[in-house]
Design brief:
Elements lengths: L3 H14 L3 H23 L2 H17 L10 H20 L24 H19 L3 H12 L4 H8 L3 H24 L1
Helix pairs in contact: 1-2, 2-3, 2-4, 3-4, 4-7, 5-8, 6-8, 7-8
Amino acid sequence: MEDDKDVNEHSLILKCQQGDKQAYSVLVKKNMKRAYFTALGLTGSHDSALDLSQDAFVRAYRSIHKFDSDRKFFTWYYQILRNLCFNHLRDRARHARSFSEIGEYELNSIVDSSQNTSDQIDQKEKKELLWQAIESLRPQEREIIILKDFQDMAYKEIAESLDCPIGTVMSRLYNARKTLKKKLARYFNE
């Protein structure tokens, strides 16, 4: 049995496919924050993340009639957003701004915050080093870590988003985490 969220999303998509702009507005609102943080994770730029996530929503709306309403919207939308982000990075041929813009967003699951001031300063430094390490990853490594560890997507959902087998997702994630761990070890041992 489908849960209410999936049924609601399914009915919203069907309405969108019939031209209901209000239903699409609801879909956008439900996915806006996740889309922004995904684009921010991929590009490292607040402004680019806003522009690209909005552009992806516009493109998704234009193609909603092609969408299989039995699939999850965000999985399909992510493919559009991903292509825009990678094209943006390729076209700009520049490094993204620091990931420190993301701030506290789900970093507490990686680095615990402490109560006393010296511990808080130490934690802030660790977070900055973590983001430097993530920023130094190749785009595909950064992408898989963002999807799994920050967007908390299931392996199946990532596989659908990236159009690859689940085994490939697991392998890419393993290798990306291994690379990140090496980079962090270098940063913390310097």
